[in-house]
Write a structure and sequence with these properties.
Blueprint lengths: L6 E3 L17 H7 L5 E7 L2 H6 L2 H9 L4 E4 L6 H9 L4 E2 L5 H9 L3 E5 L7 H4 L11 E4 L5 H6 L3 H10 L4 H7 L2 H6 L16 E3 L10 E4 L2 E5 L2 E2 L34 E6 L6 E6 L3 E2 L2 E2 L7 E7 L7 E8 L7 E4 L8 E5 L2 H14 L2 E6 L2 E7 L11 H17 L7 H6 L9 E4 L2 E4 L4 E5 L1 E2 L9
Parallel strand pairs: 1-2, 2-3, 4-5, 5-6, 11-16
Antiparallel strand pairs: 7-8, 8-9, 9-10, 11-12, 13-14, 15-16, 15-18, 16-24, 17-18, 17-19, 19-20, 21-22, 22-23
Helix pairs in contact: 1-3, 8-9
């Protein structure tokens, strides 16, 4: 492909000890990966709780990357806790959601990546922090951007245009998507047009509304009018297929006993990936925790899907909006286990079985019927189909999710973050309901045996 690919060595696989990923990347793996020429440094150190606690594993990885670019992940960290985190090595953050938090990070010398994705929308809040004194320490990222949004609005060009509409100088906005970020990653021959830089650039007719009319890579025209001038065939390797290994569930596996008066609930914050931890009197059915669509409470289930261990966690999520049915996704940051939310146990089981048959994907079901699906058979994360086909499937699945009551602009992206244990305040992983601020299990998960008696 006519583009440059660079990587950061993953620092948190799994993201924390309270997630079961498909593999484990230890300090020795990090040290080996950092020797690869295309690896620039250490990827975002998400286990900030472990860093602040002085845990051996994250600090061994930070030590291995000393002197290299070390990305950070510091949601909500300020003051002395932020000082300790930065002193450990991370120098950038893209999880900032509040202006005061971003200002605090800039004052401590961090590089502030301003995120505007399909679910997490932080540009409006953080853009005022970009000034003549700070711009060189700021950049733009999308984090997660759906194929629909990329085709409809664009990728980083969309973020640049949003910034321009909000009053940022167009040249400055382009710098935050190119020059400043290249400098942060120490890519001294990229990010600008000038002697000694690779001739990677785009041509636009209007700085008020950026549109890449032509794209050049190393001096060669590679795209015009939004169309590539090259072929990019995709043939997945056999090892990347058939990676969804789920236990065989029956209805009683979704029953949750809880004797307390208040249950820890994951509450969604609109247009953000942070959540709130709220203690609510739980709905019960036959003495067990149940969903209640009248209170906007859906059951949230995360099932380990890499090694068929049978591990699963069950909790409640508020704010998903479902009145009927269930949604499921094998895109489940960052362990990418199966994340399912629903108000009917029967539909939850149907969603699980549908994902099993697809060998990965996004699914929406209701009343015993599959309403929409996006097959993702490559690692449970990717589709081999052309982008327009995937976009059409995704739009239909999202439309069906909204018909069931989900109000979110990107329903499956919102769902995909509900199992990530390193973003406050609360999550559900295969280990159970987790307080992400302290990495403490509030409601333990369970392990079910591999057996099958149907899902209806």
């Amino acid at each position: 492909l006519p583009m440059d690919f660079f990587f950061q060595m993953p620092s948190c696989v799994p993201a924390s000890p309270l997630e079961s990923a498909g593999a484990v990347v230890g300090p020795a793996d990090v040290e080996a990966g950092l020797r690869w020429p295309e690896v620039l440094g250490l990827g975002e150190m998400m286990n900030f709780v472990g860093v602040l606690a002085g845990a051996d594993d994250p600090h061994a990885k930070l030590d291995a990357a000393r002197g290299r670019v070390i990305d950070g992940h510091a949601p909500g960290l300020t003051g002395r806790r932020l000082n300790a985190y930065v002193a450990a090595g991370p120098r950038a953050d893209h999880e900032t959601t509040r202006r005061a938090e971003g200002r605090d990070k800039l004052r401590r010398g961090m590089f502030l990546f301003i995120r505007e994705g399909s679910s997490a929308k932080n540009l409006a809040e953080l853009l005022p922090l970009v000034t003549d004194r700070t711009y060189h320490r700021c950049g733009f990222v999308t984090d997660d951007r759906s194929c629909h949004d990329i085709m409809e609005e664009g990728h980083l060009d969309h973020v640049v245009n949003l910034a321009i509409r909000r009053g940022l100088n167009p040249v400055r906005a382009i710098q935050l998507a190119s020059f400043t970020t290249a400098n942060y990653f120490r890519l001294q021959d990229l990010g600008a047009i000038g002697p000694g830089y690779w001739a990677n650039f785009f041509v636009t007719a209007d700085l008020a509304e950026i549109q890449a009319d032509e794209v050049f890579y190393r001096g060669r025209l590679v795209a015009r009018g939004g169309r590539p001038l090259f072929e990019a065939p995709f043939r997945p390797e056999e090892w990347a297929l058939h990676t969804v290994n789920l236990p065989d569930l029956r209805p009683e596996d979704l029953q949750l006993e809880f004797s307390g008066e208040k249950f820890p609930v994951v509450e969604i914050v609109p247009d953000q990936i942070v959540t709130r931890l709220v203690e609510l009197e739980p709905p019960r059915q036959n003495g067990r925790i149940a969903a209640d669509p009248n209170r906007d409470l859906a059951k949230l289930v995360v099932i380990e899907r890499h090694h068929r261990t049978g591990r699963l966690g069950i909790g409640l999520v508020k704010g998903l909006g479902l009145k009927r049915g269930a949604m499921a996704s094998t895109i489940g940051h960052d362990a990418h286990n199966l994340v399912v939310a629903g108000v009917s146990d029967g539909d939850i089981l149907l969603a699980v079985e549908t994902v099993r048959q697809l060998q990965g994907g996004l699914v929406v079901v209701a009343d015993g019927q599959v309403l929409g699906e996006v097959p993702l058979p490559v690692l449970g994360l990717l589709s081999p189909e052309p982008l327009p086909v995937v976009r059409k499937r995704l739009e239909e699945a999202e439309r069906k999710a909204r018909e069931l009551g989900c109000p979110h602009r990107a329903p499956f992206t919102t769902l995909s973050f509900l199992g990530l244990s390193v973003i406050p305040e609360a999550r559900v992983t295969d280990h159970g309901v987790v307080d992400a601020r302290t990495l403490r299990v509030l409601v333990p998960g369970r392990t079910v045996k591999g057996r099958r008696t149907g899902y209806t």
